[in-house]
């Protein structure tokens, strides 16, 4: 399957962005979808995931600020990011099974 992220950009501290990941070539509704991020010089890290039943899990660093959701009719998973901090600056990737998207860059300025 293919995953295509969108919605990245530059925002100021405290701002919000919503990322989208559109999936194709997979039976989307049956799979757990995840968001990961990689900051410059750092390893890629898990941010959040959502199961087929829409149960969600979050890294401690984003809990209470980020919300993951899915729209099975649109084969799309979202990441709503609020109260953004400079340390949230990273390339954000969508993942399911062994498939990764190419990422979308989020830059948070102080």
Task: Give the SSE layout.
Blueprint: E1 2-6, E2 9-12, E3 17-24, E4 33-38, E5 45-50, E6 56-58, E7 66-71, E8 76-81, E9 90-96, E10 99-100, E11 104-109
Parallel strand pairs: 2-11
Antiparallel strand pairs: 1-3, 3-8, 4-5, 4-9, 5-6, 7-8, 9-10, 9-11
Task: Please characterize this protein's 3D structure.
The structure is a single chain. This protein is mainly β. It is 0% helix and 54% strand. It is built from no helices and 11 strands. The strands form 2 sheets. Strands 2, 4, 5, 6, 9, 10 and 11 form a 7-stranded mixed beta sheet that branches. The N and C termini lie far apart (37 Å). The relative contact order is 0.33.
**Residue-averaged pLDDT, rounded?**
97
Q: Could you give the order of the helices and strands? A: EEEEEEEEEEE
> What is the approximate shape?
globular
Distance between the termini: 37 Å
The major β-sheet equals: 7 strands, mixed
Number of strands: 11
Relative strand content: over 45%
Number of helices: 0
What's the gyration radius in Å?
A: 13 Å
> What share of the residues lie within helices?
under 10%
What is the SS-derived class?
mainly beta
Low-confidence stretches: none
Essential attributes:
mainly beta, 0% helix, 7-stranded mixed beta sheet, 110 residues
Question: Can you describe this structure in just a few lines?
Answer:
This protein has 110 residues and is mostly beta strands. It has strands at residues 2-6, 9-12, 17-24, 33-38, 45-50, 56-58, 66-71, 76-81, 90-96, 99-100, 104-109. It is globular.
